[in-house]
What we know:
Strand content: under 5%
Distance between the termini: 54 Å
Number of strands: 3
Helix content: over 70%
Strand order of the largest sheet: 2-1-3
Shape: globular
Order of helices and strands: EHHEHHHEHHHHH
CATH architecture: Up-down Bundle
CATH superfamily: Rhodopsin 7-helix transmembrane proteins
Largest sheet: 3 strands, mixed
Amino acid sequence: MDRVNFSVVSEFVLLGLTDSREFQICLFLLFSVIYLATVSGNILIMTTIITDSRLHSPMYFLLANLSFVDLWLSSVTIPKAIIDFFKDRKTISFETCMWQVVFVHFAGGGEMVLLVIMAYDRYVAICKPLHYTIIMNQHRCICFVVISWVIGLIHSISQLVLIVDLPFCGPREIDSFFCDLPLVIELACTDTYILGILVNADSGFLASTCFILLLISYTYILFTVRHHSTEGIYKALSTCTAHIIVVVIFFVPCIFIYLCPLNIPSVDKFLAVFYAVFTPLLNPAIYTLRNKEMKAAMKRLRSQYVNSRENLRNFS
C-alpha cells in the first residue's frame, strides 16, 4: 500500500444511494439502527459464548468467530456511510478506498470459508456423532478458523494486486456508498475488460466453490437425518435450516455481483446494501432466534448481570 501509484486521482467521490435529502435522513436513521443492532448483537453473542461454559463446543466456537467476522464486515463500510449522509460531497481518499476493498474482501472471503467449516461441523455432528469429539477437537477447530482467515487474506491481496497500479486519471465518481471493486475498476483510464473478468473470476471461484460445497454438505445431511428419530430429525432440521438461510442470504448477492452481474445500478446498490449492511445483522439474529441453547444462555447471562447489580446496590 506504500507503493507509489501512478494515478493522478487522489480521491474518489461516492455518489451514495440517493440525492434526496429526506431519503438520506431516513437512510441515516436506518443505517444507524442497523449498525447499533449489529454491533450489540454480535458482541452479545461472543460474550455469551465466551462466558457460558455450556457453550464451549465447536459449533459455538465457530459461531463466535462468525459474529466477529460480521462485526468487522459491517464496520468497514457502515460508519463512513452514516457520516456521509450529512455531507453534500462524499469523498474517500485513494488509499482509504484501497484499504476498504482489502478489508471487505478479507472479511467476505473469510466468512465464506467459515460457513463451509460450520457446515462440515454439522455434517460430523449429525452423520458421525460417535467420532465428533475426536474429529472436531479444539486444535482442529482453531486450525480451521486460521485457514478461513488465511484464505480471506490471500483472496483480498489477490484483488488488491490486480487494481492497485491501475491508472486513474479521468472520472472518479463511484455510484455506491463504498468502494465496490467492480465499480472502482470501471474508473481506470485503460481497457479493463480482461481485468474485470479476472477480478470476477477470482471472487466468483471462491464464492461458487464454497456455495457448491455447502449445497453438497447440507444435501447429504438432510438425506442422512431421514433415518434418525423424529426428535433427532427436528433438531437437525432446525439447525440446518438456520445455516441454509444464512448461506442463501450471504451468497445470493455475491453471485449476482460477481458471477452474474446485472449491471443495473439500482439493483447493484440494493445487493450492495443487502450484502454489506443487512447480512452482518441477519446472520447472528437467525442463529440466535432459532437456537434454544443460545437463548437460554442469554437469559442466564442477563440473570447474572441483574443479580450482580442488585448485589452491588445492596453492598453500597
